[in-house]
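Query structure, 127 tokens:
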């Protein structure tokens, strides 16, 4: 990026920029979580109608959908928890630093995964 090529709002890379980014990401996940929970509620009521007939082919489809939706719900909840931790680190002035080695994370990595808290080498080492 060329020097002097300022963004119109001048907030690129500022902590407040990340705060907004994390917030909109959390909103998005929260919306998806609501959809998945509505889906689970729908499957649950459909399930009550077929529990008497185990051979109903629709039953296995519902089970597949159920486990998929439950998996997504778990992922979204985990990400929301990570995002709220990211917010705490932002307020503490530690956001964007690797929790293991203290090196700043690449901006591209934070943009792709705002809840990231470890740099790629540390992530590899911790596996
Ligand atoms: Zn690191």
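Result returned for the query:
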């Amino acid at each position: 990026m060329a020097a002097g090529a300022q963004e119109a709002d001048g907030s690129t890379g500022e902590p407040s920029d990340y705060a907004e980014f994390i917030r909109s990401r959390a909103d998005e996940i929260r919306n998806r979580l609501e959809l998945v929970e509505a889906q689970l509620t729908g499957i649950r009521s459909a399930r009550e109608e077929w529990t008497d007939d185990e051979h109903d082919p629709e039953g296995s489809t519902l089970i597949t959908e159920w486990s998929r939706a439950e998996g997504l719900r778990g992922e979204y909840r985990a990400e929301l928890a990570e995002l709220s931790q990211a917010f705490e680190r932002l307020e503490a002035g530690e956001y964007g630093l690797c929790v293991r080695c203290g090196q700043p994370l690449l901006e591209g990595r934070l943009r792709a995964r705002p809840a990231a808290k470890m740099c790629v080498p540390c992530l590899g080492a911790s596996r």
